[in-house]
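Sample log: DUF4287 domain-containing protein.
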Amino acid sequence: MTATVKGPASYFPSIEKKYGRPVAEWKDLIRSSPLTKHMELVAWLKAEHGMGHGHANALVAHTLAEGPAREA
C-alpha cells in the first residue's frame, strides 16, 4: 500500500510541473539566498520567480524544516 504524501511535500509534483525545475533545485536556491526569514523567502520566490503563494510557502516551509544544506 502506498502512503499518501501530506504537508508541504504534497505540492512538489505540481511545483515541478508548473515551474519546470526539480524541487531539489528550488531548495538549493532557497538555501543560497541571503534571506533567512520564512515570509521574506516566500515573497522573494513570488517576486523573482513568479511562484504562487501556496507553492512558495510549501517549498520554504519544507526547506527550512530540513535545516542547513547537507554535505554530499
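Observation: The two ends are 31 Å apart (CA to CA).
Observation: The helical segments are 12-19, 23-32, 38-49, 53-66.
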